[in-house]
Structure formats: C-alpha cells, structure tokens
Write a structure and sequence with these properties.
about 40% helix; 12 strands; Arc Repressor Mutant, subunit A; WYL_dom
Length: about 325
C-alpha cells in the first residue's frame, strides 16, 4: 500500500484544486481520491477524514476552497474559484501577446502556455480557442528577450549602455549601421508603440534624445558607468512622435473634419487643445516632431486634414501631395 507524506499530500491537493476546479467544475471527495489514485496508483492509502482535514487546513491558511454543501442526498463538492486574474483579463493578455510583432512565434506560444497555467485546465482550453499566430507579422529575431532583460536592468540601475544597431536592405539582409560601430547611450525608458518595442535614450554622440527599435539592437552591453536621475516624460515624448520618426519639436495646427474627432482624441487624449473652426471642422494645436512620420500621418486623412501652420510643414505636405498626384498621371 502506497503512503503519501502529509506535506506532499497537501501540495498535491492544492494542485488538483488549482488545475481541475473552477467556478464551473467541482470535485467530490470520492473524485479527489480517484485523482490521487491516478497519480500514485490504485493502492494509495487515503481516507476522507484526512482529506477534510487537509481542506480545512488550506482554508485556514487563505487558500480559497468553495464548498457546495450536501443537499438531497448528493455529496459535498469542492472547488477553487478565486484566481489572481479573471478569464477576460487572461484573454486580454493572450491577445496582446499574439498581436505583438516583436515577440517571435515560438515565444508567443510559450507565453500563451504560461498564461494558461494561471487558471484551471478547463478555463485554459478556452484561452487556446481561436488563437491564430500570424507568423508573417512576427519577429524572427532571437535577440529581443535578451535585450529587454538587459535594458530593464540598465534603466533600473541608471547605467550607460552600448549596442550596435541595424536595418534591413532591399535584399532582406540585416546590415549594421555606422559600419558596426557602437552606440553609447543613457537609457531612459522602454515603450511599446506601433506594435514594436522601442528604447528611448540619450545618444551621447548627437547630444539628443532618440529612440531605437529593440528588435534591431545587437550586442547590448551594460557599462559600469552610471548617470544621475533625470526626469523624463515617456508618454509626452511618444505622443509628440508620429510613427516613431525622430525630428525637431514644434507647435503645429491642423484643421480636421469633425468625423475625425475620435481618431484625434484616441491619439492625443481628451485634454488635447481642440477648438471649433466651423460647423464641419475643428483645429488641433499640439507640439509634434516634424518628420516624415508626421507628414505620412497627416496624408492618411486625405482631404479631411489640412496643415495650418507652420508654413514649412504646409509646404512639405503640399509637395508630397504633388508628387503623389504626378505618380497617377497618365
């Protein structure tokens, strides 16, 4: 006859409750004993009184066990219903992981597997339903998870880092920029924008703040050199940067059709400086980094957006519209 150590029995009972029960799935004492027999063999020595004591011990030590009382001759049923995350919260986490381009397909499946373990097996199966990982949009870079770990450490400890940076060419080959020379920066923050992870940092050589795609970093090294705390508003920086293109920051005014009000609020928030222009249009005034990304963003709205100022931005957008028009002339 197989005997189970008391501590082992208690831990196994917790595992059974965590993995096999939830709001919709309960187990009777007989079913719990059967689970133990499946694990330890049919001759395992276990009785209901010991299990009841174990359950009470779990409850007394803040492990949730819901007891469905005996009724009409039916036995008591037990389940573990309290979870750190609700099912819909886990669903949001899974959807975010699936949508993130900077996470490889293999890492996506590994992360989903870990998220599923945060609930019961039954609920975990629901999380797996209808999950489609589009490998065409997923990063193939194996360097990201290592870079993220090092970058978080460097940011937390305020230590200077070096790395190499690169881009793909027309032949889909990855080429290091600056002939492979090292970038030396003060890392301020990591942010997720446009489905990619970006490092925001002070670049010593240029003497300015820049951002870098994490999946394009190579050979990240944390130096012993540290830097003092510097206040930096990540959300303000990202908000002023369109499609993560760098540029000089200026005040701009753009006239939009009223139908775009929700798009603008989504981008700039409800505190944005928005003023009525006429019955069909409003004016947005904001600071933005003048760049190709800003020009492309404005052109997305076609005739429903017009630059008011500065004049240099007005002329740049106008020239781009002329170039586009020329492309479609026969």
């Amino acid at each position: 006859m197989t005997r189970i150590d008391n501590k082992e029995r208690l831990l196994r009972l917790m595992t059974i409750f965590s993995q096999e029960t939830d709001e919709d799935h309960e187990l009777s004492l007989d079913e719990i004993i059967h689970r133990f027999q499946q694990i330890y063999g049919p001759d395992v020595k276990l009785n209901k009184n010991s299990l009841k004591d174990d359950i009470n011990h779990l409850i007394n030590h803040s492990f949730d066990v819901t007891i469905n009382q005996e009724k009409d001759g039916l036995p008591k049923y037990y389940s573990h219903q309290y979870r750190l995350f609700e099912l819909y919260e886990l669903r949001m986490l899974v959807d975010a992981v699936v949508s993130a381009k900077f996470i490889t397909k293999q890492e996506t499946r590994q992360l989903i597997g870990k998220i599923r373990k945060l609930t019961s097996n039954h609920q975990g199966k629901k999380l797996q339903n209808e999950i489609q990982v589009d490998s065409s949009i997923k990063s193939e870079s194996p360097y990201i998870r290592l870079a993220i770990h090092d970058l978080h450490q460097a940011i937390s400890e305020r230590r200077v880092i070096t790395f190499q940076y690169g881009r793909y060419d027309i032949d889909k080959n990855f080429n290091l920029s600056h002939e492979g020379s090292l970038y030396k920066v003060k890392p301020y923050a990591l942010t997720w924008a446009n489905d990619f992870y970006y490092l925001i940092a002070y670049y010593y050589e240029a003497g300015e703040i820049r951002h870098y795609r994490v999946d394009r970093l190579r050979n990240v090294s944390i130096l012993e050199e540290s830097f003092p705390y510097e206040s930096f508003d990540v959300s303000k920086y990202v908000q002023s940067t369109f499609q993560m293109f760098a540029g000089d920051e200026e005040w701009i005014k753009v006239k939009f059709h009223n139908g775009l009000i929700n798009v603008i609020i989504d981008k700039f928030g409800k505190e944005a400086d928005i003023r009525k222009y006429d019955d069909e249009h409003f004016i947005l005034s904001t600071k933005a980094r003048i760049s190709g990304g800003l020009v492309n963003w404005i052109l997305n709205f076609g005739s429903q957006a017009k630059v008011i100022s500065p004049n240099s931005l007005f002329q740049t957008v106008k020239e781009e519209v002329t170039k586009m028009n020329n492309l479609y002339e026969y």
